[in-house]
Amino acid sequence: MAIEIVPITPGFGAEIGDVDLSRPLAGEDLAAIEEAFWTYAVLVFPEQKLTGDQHLAFAANFGPHETTIQVYRPGKDKDLRLRKEFADVSNLDPEGQIWGRDSRTRMFQMANRIWHTDSSFKRVPALASLLYARSIPPIGGHTEFADERAAYDALPEETKARLEGLVAEHCIVHSRMRLGFTAFTEEERAGMPPVPQLLVRTLPQSGRKTLYLASHAGRILGMPKAEGRALIDQLMAHATQRQFVYTHRWRPHDLVMWDDRCTMHRGTDFDDLRWPRDMQRATVSDVANSCEQEGVQAALA
Ligand code: OGA
Ligand code: MN
Hints:
Blueprint: E1 4-7, E2 14-17, H1 27-40, E3 42-45, H2 52-59, E4 87-88, H3 104-109, E5 126-135, E6 143-147, H4 148-153, H5 157-163, E7 167-170, H6 172-178, H7 186-191, E8 195-198, E9 200-202, E10 209-211, E11 217-220, H8 225-239, E12 245-248, E13 255-259, E14 263-267, E15 278-285, H9 290-293
Parallel strand pairs: 2-3
Antiparallel strand pairs: 1-2, 3-13, 4-15, 5-13, 5-15, 6-12, 6-14, 7-8, 7-11, 9-10
The protein binds N-oxalylglycine and manganese (II) ion.
The site of N-oxalylglycine has 10 residues, from strand 5, strand 14 and strand 15.
């Protein structure tokens, strides 16, 4: 039976049914999923029963796995709850207990609550993220997604012209600093230097233009720092207006996949000191840095 695709809105978000992601996919089903992904940017696959291997195998259809940065945990930094190919997006410590109020991991992961796209702070950023819900809290803990293609389309023509070719500097230190987290070790800082990314990208598969924004973006090259930051903040406020946003309310065993090149996302509040929320994310790397993909030279001063 062919897979079923049910759009959530006409151009953003779709639910995919009649597919079992635990098994290798037929060529035409994978092609249909890819096409839906380039069209809708966020795909929801309900009722998937996936082992870690199966989750990773489905992700591998879209490109190479990205290994995520590990948050240094004083005293127990070597123990990971999940295998290292996954980003652990839960509120659990390596022993499976709910994290402490003041734990470093909790402070670090708070940045998932502000609008971002995954890994734009890496020279080669993420193409796609695939987040799987192993268990969810009874209330709260949703994930919101903003369509930056639609947000770009809605800009005035003179703004579009002004943004053409601009390059932003992205750094993970920046998104953490927004929340007052500055306790990076020297090693962490050295391992995550700022990288250039285009502010407006063109998606090769659809030809659509999109904003490429994130909490990781700190300044715009060639612009006074304050002016660049003000522009980034203004564009983020524009791109996250309700008409561009889909809120995903999780069910256990949902797999949600999003295009990191043209969406932002954030987690919503929940009582994270009371309810376990066990989520694991596989991340697929893009083919190259966004500037390199479009032949834009960008040297960080
Ligand atoms: C992520 C993320 C938000 C959430 O997995 O990259 O930002 O709601 N998640 O868990
Ligand atoms: Mn994220």
